[in-house]
Specification:
The structure is a single chain. The protein is mainly alpha-helical. The protein has one domain. 61% of the residues lie in helices and 5% in strands. The radius of gyration is 16 Å and the shape is globular. The two termini are 20 Å apart.
Length: 177
């Protein structure tokens, strides 16, 4: 797998702030995102937008439009069996995280976004490896400590331990470069 973040780096420096502004306007104006735009959780999404590569923001407006919906909204969208390729479902425990002032909320958003992008770019891959690759994307954005905080909030599972191990390895190997 190619590093996801490298796919979206733009060599064009002049348009970055305008792309960021355009994406922000686009994202918060989507009807599906009214629940985000009009609440205090907006600050976490704004932080996410501020750290994403401008090339990715451009792709999110055209090639990969992604929406975030709360889990209870699934019943209004067709429920079971519906296609949610470009939809990130925010379950209650993560909605509570977004409503907090924890920095890990941004890591959660970045991870979920990366996970969806890996599925769209790479097709069906091993779920655990997609989780690890999404974690690497979050680290590449500079959110390593926020991701660690997020992982430590999760229930104790083998998957969580493996992801923390990869996070530690990634942190120490990237620090040696």
């Amino acid at each position: 797998m190619m590093n996801l973040i490298e796919r979206f780096f733009s060599k064009e420096k002049s348009d970055r702030s305008q792309i960021r502004k355009n994406f922000s306007t686009y994202f918060f104006s989507l009807p599906e995102h009214e629940w985000i735009a009009t609440s205090p959780i907006r600050v976490h999404f704004e932080k996410l937008i501020s750290v994403l590569p401008s090339g990715l923001l451009s792709s999110l407006m055209t090639k990969y439009p992604v929406t975030f919906i709360r889990s209870f909204e699934l019943s209004g969208r067709g429920g079971a069996g519906m296609v949610l390729n470009n939809t990130i479902v925010v379950f209650p425990e993560f909605q509570r995280l977004l409503e907090s002032d924890k920095a890990s909320a941004v890591a959660y958003l970045a991870h979920e976004l990366a996970f969806v992008l890996y599925e769209l770019e790479e097709g069906k891959t091993d779920t655990l490896m997609a989780e690890v690759e999404a974690d690497k994307f979050v680290c590449d954005l500079g959110l390593t400590f926020e991701l660690e905080e997020l992982l430590l909030l999760l229930d104790e599972t083998i998957e969580k331990r493996l992801r923390l191990t990869y996070l530690t390895i990634n942190h120490f190997t990237s620090g040696n470069n």
